[in-house]
Amino acid sequence: MECKIREWKMEDAAELASTLNNKNIQDNLRDGLPYPYTEDDAKFYINEILKANKNSVFAFAITADHKVVGSIGVFRKDNIHSRTAEMGYYIAESFWGKGLGTCAIKQTCQYVFNNTDILRIFAEPFSYNIASCRILEKSGFKCEGVLRSNAVKNNQILDMKIYSLLKSDTE
Questions:
Q1: Omega of the bond prior to 34 within 30 degrees of 0, cis?
Q2: What's the mean pLDDT in 1-16?
Q3: What is the mean predicted confidence (pLDDT) over 79-108?
Q4: Strand ranges of the sheet holding 67-76, from the earlier edge strand across to the other edge
Q5: Which helix (H) or strand (E) covers residue 47, if one does?
Q6: Which residues form the N-acetyltransferase domain (predicted)?
Q7: 102: part of which helix (H) or strand (E)?
Q8: Which of the four pLDDT bands, split at 50, 70 and 90, describes residue 152?
Q9: Contact, 91 vs 69, CB < 8 A?
């Protein structure tokens, strides 16, 4: 199954809400998302992304078969890290294991490296999220280490891994 990344559209709100209104997905993301996740929440998010600084926020809908199946974003850091960006992503549970995450990550990183001065993209999945770690590895990211007791999610103290891809790795 092939995927494409594209800019968000307001008419994506229903599919976005359907994807994020899933505890299995939210359990692998940072806190702060409403649950249950409504169509109004999705419209608010899409509106914020469309208004965001185009030199700092690179956020895309992940589509397959003309349907929104996930989200991916790369967010520029600041100060001495202004040429570094953090990436986050998720895929609708019914599309897990179909290669869409790897496909979207490769397209997004290529876009960011080709269109910005960003030199390094990193991601910090929970260590237990083996599928997400594998997606990053298949996308060319290198594991730089384990961040021990780095997060508290659902009242659990969790380790995270840090992965990075350098622009120079892709040239």
A1: no
A2: 95
A3: 97
A4: 4-6, 57-64, 67-76, 84-91, 120-123, 156-166, 142-153
A5: helix 39-51
A6: 3-163
A7: helix 100-115
A8: very high
A9: yes
How far apart, in whole angstroms, are the C-alpha atoms of residue 20 and residue 133? 20
Model confidence at 107, in pLDDT bands (50, 70, 90)? very high
Domain hosting 165: range is: 3-169
Task: Give strand ranges (E) for 3-140.
Answer: 4-6, 57-64, 67-76, 84-91, 120-123
> Amino acid identity, residue 25?
I
User: How many structural domains are present in the chain?
Assistant: 1
CB contact at 8 A, 132 and 166 = no
Q: Which tokens hold the place of 74?
A: 């790369």
If DSSP codes are grouped into helix, strand and coil, which group holds residue 3? coil
Structure tokens at 160: 């995270």
Any bridge partners for residue 21, and if so which?
A: none
